[in-house]
Design goal:
The protein is an alpha+beta fold. It folds into two domains: 76 residues, Alpha-Beta Plaits (2-Layer Sandwich), CATH 3.30.70; 75 residues, ACT-like. Chain A, domain 2 (Alpha-Beta Plaits). Helix content is 28%, strand content 40%. The strands form two sheets. The protein has a four-stranded antiparallel sheet, with helices on one face. The chain has a four-stranded antiparallel sheet with strand order 6-7-5-8. It starts with a helix and ends with a strand. Its EC number is 2.2.1.6.
């Protein structure tokens, strides 16, 4: 067996083994699902995930078409490529589902999340929290003598980074909306 195959970790595979050695890689995908806005639809969609042991990393839902009574569910999920394909196929078969888009594979997409952070602190910690909020373009939406509530929008990574910096400064509570996403372009 060549050194190239050994480096790729293929040393345990024979030439007759047709399985893809990378098929067990866990991928994260953002799915946009257009559904009827009626009672029980969200529960049915979520039931598909929980009943089969699929993970939901983020979930947002809102009505997007008032006249047509349609809502958009944005789900960030993870799994092997086969699991992701299964999820999409099962969603597409559901009666209240009109469209399923995998924004991860359909091309470039914009993903954002909104979060609120309550940070309590005094003296230099308050000054540092305000300085960091300015760097991250977070807005102060509430202020008392003991605490601030910051509002920040951005990628999940940006929000995670802001949280990591706020923890030693007195972070008390976080509320996150989950990911909202749209494909780019026409």
């Amino acid at each position: 067996m060549s050194a190239l195959n050994i480096k790729k970790g293929a040393s345990s595979h024979s030439a007759y083994d047709l399985r893809d050695p990378y098929s067990e890689v866990i991928e994260v995908h953002t799915l946009a699902v257009l559904v009827d806005n009626e009672a029980g639809v969200l529960a049915r969609v979520i039931g598909l995930f929980s009943g089969r042991g699929y993970n939901i990393e983020s979930l947002t839902v809102a009505e997007v078409d008032h006249k047509g009574h349609r809502s958009r569910i944005t789900v960030v999920t993870s799994g092997t490529p086969q699991v992701i394909e299964q999820i999409k196929a099962q969603l597409e078969r559901m009666v209240p589902v009109h469209e399923v888009h995998d924004l991860t594979v359909e091309g470039p997409a914009v993903q954002r999340e909104l979060a609120l952070f309550k940070v309590a602190g005094q003296g230099e910690q308050r000054v540092e929290a305000l300085r960091l909020a300015d760097i991250f373009r977070a807005s102060v939406v509430d202020s008392t003598l003991e605490s601030f509530v910051f509002e920040i929008t951005g990628t999940a990574e940006k929000i995670d980074a802001f949280a990591d910096l706020m923890r030693p400064l007195g972070l008390r509570e976080i509320a996150r909306t989950g990911v909202a996403a749209l494909s780019r372009g026409a």
